Amino acid sequence: MATTLAIDGLADRLRERLGERVSTSPVVREGHGRDESHHRPFPPDIVVFPESVDEVVAVVGLCREHETPMIPFGVGTSLEGHVAALQGGVSIDMSRMNRVIEVNAADLDVRVEPGVTRKQLNAHLRDTGLFFPIDPGADATIGGMAATRASGTNAVRYGTMRDNVLGLTVVLADGRTIRTGTRARKSSAGYDLTRLFVGSEGTLGVIVEVTLRLSGIPEAVSSAVCAFPGVDDAVETCIAIIQSGVPVARIELADEVQIAAINRWSKTDLPERPVLFFEFHGSESSVAEQAETAESIAADNGGTGFEWSARQEDRNALWQARHDAHYANMALRPGCRAWPTDVCVPISRLAECIAETRRDIAATDLLAPIVGHVGDGNFHIDFVLDPDDEAELAAATGVNERLIARALAMGGTCTGEHGVGYGKKKYLAAEHGEGVSVMRAIKQALDPANLMNPGKIVDPPG
Amino acid sequence: MATTLAIDGLADRLRERLGERVSTSPVVREGHGRDESHHRPFPPDIVVFPESVDEVVAVVGLCREHETPMIPFGVGTSLEGHVAALQGGVSIDMSRMNRVIEVNAADLDVRVEPGVTRKQLNAHLRDTGLFFPIDPGADATIGGMAATRASGTNAVRYGTMRDNVLGLTVVLADGRTIRTGTRARKSSAGYDLTRLFVGSEGTLGVIVEVTLRLSGIPEAVSSAVCAFPGVDDAVETCIAIIQSGVPVARIELADEVQIAAINRWSKTDLPERPVLFFEFHGSESSVAEQAETAESIAADNGGTGFEWSARQEDRNALWQARHDAHYANMALRPGCRAWPTDVCVPISRLAECIAETRRDIAATDLLAPIVGHVGDGNFHIDFVLDPDDEAELAAATGVNERLIARALAMGGTCTGEHGVGYGKKKYLAAEHGEGVSVMRAIKQALDPANLMNPGKIVDPPG
Fold it and tell me: Residue A1's pLDDT is what?
């Protein structure tokens, strides 16, 4: 941890370069040390707001010279303490680098600065017939989404950030700027540096530009809702739909606890039973065909009230309610804090994994709704906790640890989309074994002084 | 280069472990130092045929102890000198590790040893309703395809090896075995080691197991052929089809030189003009709809004789003819050697890139048909050369260098799917700039003694 004097010296030098766009105000620092999780926040010592790649290079150079940690910051919607300044240092807030640089409609790609948010990008694209499909719920920045390998509701059809980032510009710990990838759709020209930086959570460099793949807005879109007697029935329906090859765009589970919260918060009147939300993209006839197949599979599994609609207002209301699940949960207990955790398992094990997890939750007094991007085998528990109740936190920690062990034993991963941050670092060894030492060797090779978001993903050797 | 005595000593120790499955026969060595390219072959000193992960670990340990290079080998269908033993050493032939370990039909995944070939895998899957879609033409091994990030005709719909490898088991240079990835469809648990090893061409470790994503065999498949007045018209048709969002499974270009060669070799009677080959996958109605849209776009661009067929015999004959293009080209000049090179560009630049390249070829005396996976913006020149004619080789080298410069200037890559090997190493700096030094740092971190397929992709620092 740097001394106050050292920090003052660095802040002065940063101000020489960035002027007023350097803050040591406690309020600004507090806001940059926390994300949307329950994890303990750690405020940085300084927050800077660069407006260009050159300014980021200058900030990185000064931090290196002062041996001070640096933590890239988007809008702080991460969920595992990714932006916490565990060892103090400088938060590099990328929100002012928010230009859409170039839309190549003919190539279905776009080049953006990292501070562009996904909603801003889609608003910008409105007249092009194209959209950026990755939708993690929060209006995260593209840079943050790339850094955490974000995913969300559309991933079952459109993939995750891993699949939709064509290339990056990154400022490395040593101040050099590299460009990974090209605008070509595919390449076998050397190591896949793009995929190395996607999901590296700011530990290998600062992402300063992102080239994204876009998708054509489908000719037709329809959505549907269907309720099931039990969670198993809903999950079995999902598995059968995926296995049957229906190219569903979204297929989301909410259990009855979650539906009750949604109804109360969003003034909906969904049946308070396990529900699947669907969305289908394609031509008019393909969308109708997909909905019919899904309805028939749902009916085979006891699904009732399958309603589908191609009206945009209905769809928007439905997905807004789904996206607001986290806020709906928090509203169940005023003053509480929510802790969303996620795992992802092979889809054949999904029903079993969710059932065992629900039994585990039922054996506690926890309020813990389950939602899931079940088409990918990915689901979340959203623990709703009294932040001052140690016993509750301990119970949730136990459920989370058993959840992760269960997912790993089923051939799954400790996080499908939330990332590692400092909240899940301790589980990486169980998932990757010796692979963690390979990650460590890469970290050491690219950031030998361990100044890039230290304490996240892996610690340095020794 | 190791001395004969040192090699004898290593061969003896390898025989202690692998018995008869160690060869120093000149014929075997010759066969393991060459691939299907025109690049000069370099035979290894020793070829080993391990049958288990433990044996690979033992081979790697002995090579390390003897400071001897090791080069993983599949079936030798690579195209940029990937398997050439530039500094001698041990070729690790993985062909005896060719078991399909586990098919998880419900999860659409499969675990295989690296020596399984793609045709062997698809034969194995025949009764499951699933298939492995990546089709580079050659019956390559899955390990080799992962190592070179192979792609091919289906990539426009199903992605490349990057997208279809879920996880790998890799023996590292230091003898440790790591498992990357899980069977989960997505993960954000740390650095993406799977994507780092996919495309690393044996320079970071030996792939000893691969978990692949499978796809459902589509309910309906149809194929089509359409001829165009000029290459531009064919390419514009392709661009319009991709931009219109038709989920075409394959869209392949062959120019009139290539079609003439195919007709002669495969006894087909295709019009000797630029041709697009299509394949559509989906439901019966979706396939019909796709074919109609494609036909209409083709007609707008002067396409004539659009014929489509859902008969499997017709499809097989068509794709066999397409896959035999390379052999058809070699048959044009008995005794010649073919040199296939590839680039990939943003699709909006594809017509221009191909047109300029054809003008460049026309200014030479070269026989150089063009084929392309044009839905991805990827195309190949297949130079047909007299191996003893230095002037021809020099002319082809010039065309290749200008092709690569053109592709890079258009925002593309120096290789879309063939890889780097030693043939394209010199072009990486132009494509990646400082990124090459990041690749070098990773290579150095994971293989400090530079024993893993040395001389490919990047050289060590200094």
Answer: 52
pLDDT classification of A56: cutoffs 50, 70, 90? very high
Encode pLDDT of B349-386 as tens digits.
999 999 999 999 999 999 999 999 999 999 999 999 99
Mutate to test the interface with A, among B376, B438, B458 (most CBs of A within 10 A): B438
Cα(B404)–Cα(B409) distance, rounded to whole angstroms? 8
CA dist A192 and B425 (Å) reads 15
Q: Exposed/middle/buried for B338, CB within 10 Å: 0-12, 13-18, 19+?
A: buried
The residues in B 39-58 lying below 8 A from A, measured between CB atoms, are none
Give me the mean pLDDT over the A385-391 stretch: 92
Between residues 128 and 167 of chain B, which touch chain A (CB distance below 8 Å)?
Answer: 148-151, 155, 159-160, 162-163
A246 in contact with chain B, both atoms CB, cutoff 8 A: no
Q: How many CA atoms lie within 13 A of B355 on its CB side?
A: 12
**What's the average model confidence in pLDDT over B147-171?**
96
* B279 phi and psi angles, rounded to 5 deg: -140, 140
Report yes or no: A436 at the B interface, CB cutoff 8 Å.
yes
Residue A3 above 90 pLDDT? Answer: no
Which residues does chain A have within 8 Å of residue B420's beta carbon, measured at their own beta carbons? 188-190
The DSSP element (H or E) to which B284 belongs, if any, is helix B284-300
Give the residue from A233, A240, A222, A224 showing the smallest Cα distance to A256. Answer: A233
**Parallel, antiparallel, or unpaired for β A220-227 and A70-73?**
unpaired
Question: How far is residue A190's CA from residue A292's CA, in Å, rounded to a whole number?
Answer: 45
Q: So what's the pLDDT on residue B1?
A: 52
The answer to whether residue A441 neighbours chain B at the CB level (below 8 Å) is: yes
**Candidates B103, B151, B185, partner chain A, best to mutate (most A CBs within 10 A):** B185
Contact in structure between B82 and B201 (CB atoms under 8 Å): yes
Q: Which residues of A touch B444 (CB under 8 A)?
A: 445
| pLDDT band, residue B387 (cuts 50/70/90) | confident
List strand residue ranges (DSSP E) for A289-388, in order.
Answer: 304-309, 337-344, 370-373, 378-385
What pairs with residue A339 in β-bridges? A383
Pairwise CA distance, residues B378 & B372, whole Å:
6
Instruction: Write the CA distances from A226 to A303, A306, A328, B266, integer angstroms.
Output: 6, 4, 20, 53
For B242, the 3-state DSSP assignment is helix
Nearest residue of B to residue A436 by CA position?
Answer: B190
**Using a CB-CB distance cutoff of 8 angstroms, which residues of chain A are in contact with residue B418?**
188
**Gap between the Cα atoms of B60 and A136, Å rounded:** 43
Q: What is the reported pLDDT for B243?
A: 84
Q: Could you read off the pLDDT of B420-455 as tens digits, one per residue? A: 999 999 999 999 999 999 999 999 999 999 999 999
**Under an 8 A CB cutoff, do A179 and B432 touch?**
yes
Q: Which of A421, A416, A449, A445 is nearest to A431 (CA)?
A: A416
Q: Which two tokens stand for residue A127?
A: 């007249």
316-355 of B, contacting A, C-beta below 8 A: 344-348
Contact A279, A222 (CB under 8 A): yes
**For residue B26, what are its two tokens?**
């000149």
Q: Do B435 and A180 touch (CB under 8 A)?
A: yes
